[in-house]
Amino acid sequence: MIRILAIFCILFSTSLRAETIKLAVTTSFHNSGLSDILLPEILADTGLEVQLLVVGTGQALRLGEAGDVDAILVHSKQAEVDFVANGFGTHRREIMYNDFVIIGPASDPSNIQNAQSADAALSQIASHKAAFVSRGDQSGTHKKELGLWQTANLDPEAFGGWYRSVGSGMGASLNIASSMNAHILSDRASWLNFGNKGALGLLFSGDPQLANQYAYIPVNPERHRHVNSSATIILEKWLTSRAAELLINGYEIGGQPLFVFNASPTR
């Protein structure tokens, strides 16, 4: 009986210490599995319970604009810079990066493995009218894809039925691509953690254009007074700490690291 009471007291005291923060994160970050590693450690180290809203970058920014979350963790730099410049966020702090990769049929019918650049690879897919799945959801991944088509002087709106815009998150979009044996742009972490690869393979990577930086932005409490700004400070301090660096750099799937920590000690 005494032991049961002691356990109850510990659990009760933990619940009293826990402070809650609402954090909008991208589907690619969540699909990587990294959040499952980080969140328990954040709670243990800080007493901060992070409640994730998993959406595309565009939706995460809209949630921040509306004050529906306390902070966001996203990966579309220009949209993030605009978000802060327009007064919706207090500042932008880079946390970690990985890269985007082009996935497609392992047989590589469009021969994109030998392409000289990412936009050249997409040009070859377009010239072959090879099946391509686009997230189509204004996420960071979708914005990157649209930018690559633009660099290649191609307009997806002019494409035919071989180009399918699905309006879905990264995991769902990868599932559709797998079922269609189609090409898709993915972040590397989501691809490595994806379990339904089917006949797909990683065909193209390594172009500097495919860099994928994640940044943390607290929502501006001057816009929304109810924002838990004290919790955003605690979370930012942890995300830029040595503990976070070790966990982020040490997170691997099949022996392959998924992210590289690059937060500066001060902003």
Could you give a short account of the major beta sheet? Answer: 10 strands, mixed
> What is the C-alpha radius of gyration, as a whole number of Å?
20 Å
Order of helices and strands: HEHHEHEHEHEHEHEHEEHHEEE
Shape: globular
How many angstroms does the end-to-end distance come to?
51 Å
Q: Tell me the CATH topology of the largest domain.
A: D-Maltodextrin-Binding Protein, domain 2
| CATH class category label of the largest domain | Alpha Beta
What is the number of helices? 11
Name the CATH homologous superfamily of the largest domain: Periplasmic binding protein-like II
The pLDDT mean sits at 92
Please indicate the percent range of residues in DSSP E strands (runs of 2 or more). Answer: 15-25%
Tag the structure with descriptive keywords.
globular, 11 helices, 267 residues, ten-stranded mixed β-sheet, D-Maltodextrin-Binding Protein, domain 2, alpha/beta, 2 domains, disordered N terminus, single chain, two-stranded antiparallel sheet
Briefly summarize what is shown.
This protein is an alpha/beta fold and 267 residues long. It has helices at residues 2-17, 27-31, 34-46, 57-66, 77-85, 118-127, 140-151, 170-180, 188-192, 229-239, 242-250, and strands spanning 19-26, 48-55, 71-74, 93-105, 132-134, 163-165, 183-187, 200-204, 211-218, 252-253, 256-257, 260-261. The termini are far apart.
